[in-house]
Amino acid sequence: MGTNQIQLIDQYDRRLNYLRISITDRCNIQCIYCMPRNGISKLRHEDILTYEEILTYEEILRLARIAISLGVDKIRLTGGEPLIRKGICEFIPRLTALAGLREVALTTNGIFLKEKLAKLKTGRIKRINISLDSLHRDRYEKITGYDGLELVLAGIKGAREMGFNPVKINMVVMEGVNDDEILDFARLSLEHPYHIRFIEYMPVSVTSSDIPLRHVPSSLIKEQLGKLGKLVPIPRDIHDGPAERFKFEEAHGEIGFISPLTHHFCPACNRLRLTSSGYLRPCLLSDQEVDLEGPMRNGASDEDLAGIFLKTALTKPHSHHLTSKNSTHLSAKMSSIGG
Ligand code: SAM
Ligand code: SF4
Predict the structure, then answer these.
(1) Is residue 6 part of a domain?
(2) Residue 71 falls within a domain, yes or no?
(3) Is residue 13 part of a domain?
């Protein structure tokens, strides 16, 4: 990347070098905090059609190329569930082949992970984050509406054995739902090189829970983890983003905290998000978004689209206003924004 190149820098001097792309807003499970339980049948990848309103792979590649020309060097594929979109394994090597990308990562619920691992590896995916909120089969089914824990665990083990590094396990911690499993998740980092990420639940979507969902502050989780040993902070890397990282002494893996509600989360935010329907979002927790798909389909040039990226970067808010006492109902679903 040339040093005199125009880059995505916001008005608070944050360099936005990380683009998260939601590949589809559809999912094969329905987590209580993300999707309504409205009887949507469990979609398999074969069932997914390419709808006009979602970006085609060609369009995603074009936008990724433009973002890279503006300094983006990391892309994460997310969703909905990215592994259910038809053609994803053929698309990935085309994306990772784009010059200027440092890495392409994937966030998945892990249901189809094991069967796709080999293709993800040859497609040069570097990092895989797997969302898992319970290690108990019944509870997993209660949280997701799907009896899939064994599949997810097999995907996690397979990813480790295939040498993906790191394999991150993201747990959204909810009071009275799964907070009694914090130590069990943390223990996974002792013997295996897993990075366990505790994420504060964010009250931003319609939930399908029987009880009101509440986050558990990261400070309380840290306190509990004291029972397992001493957490040693890991010095921040420029690529870390908003996570705080720790390690138990002698552990093979790591512990991380994403604390959108209780911690200083925004100053380190280096992200832009591209929704499955082609909108660019400067902030996860704000409804502000700018259409790229419309102009692109109406003949905008690469320069025009780069201009939209640059303008949108300048509107990235300083910080979000979500607190433990208020909730923000995002008009777009988390699954189309990509979390
Ligand atoms: N389906 C994939 C998965 O679950 O890994 C990718 C999409 S999902 C929207 C991305 C991440 O957002 C997941 O780790 C999920 O747990 C997280 N997420 C979704 N809704 C959330 C909420 N209300 N609070 C905190 N995290 C949330
Ligand atoms: Fe699907 Fe991921 Fe949302 Fe769960 S968090 S319903 S797996 S998109």
Answers:
(1) no
(2) yes
(3) no
* Distance between Cα 339 and ligand 1 center (Å): 5
Name the residue range of residue 277's domain: 18-337
Q: How far apart are CA 121 and CA 92, in angstroms?
A: 10
Is it the case that residue 325 has pLDDT exceeding 70? no
Higher pLDDT, 327 or 284: 284
Ligand 1: residues with CB < 6 A are 27, 33-34, 78-81, 107-109, 131, 170, 172, 199, 201-202, 204-205, 334-335, 338-339
Distance 140 CA to ligand 1 centre (A): 15
Which residue's structure tokens are 């979500």? Answer: 322
Q: What is the pTM of this model?
A: 0.92
Could you give the CA distance from residue 120 to residue 110 in angstroms, rounded to a whole number? 13
Residues 224-245: tens digit of each pLDDT: 999 999 999 998 877 677 789 9
Number of domains the chain contains: 1
Does residue 11 form part of some domain? no
**What are the start-end ranges of the E strands in the chain?**
18-22, 74-78, 103-108, 127-131, 167-173, 195-200, 231-233, 244-248, 254-258, 271-274, 279-281, 290-291
Is residue 76 predicted with pLDDT exceeding 90?
yes
Look over the chain and give the mean of its residue pLDDT values, rounded to a whole number. Answer: 89
Q: What is the CATH number of the domain that holds 165?
A: 3.20.20.70
Which ligand approaches the C-alpha of residue 130 most closely? Answer: 1
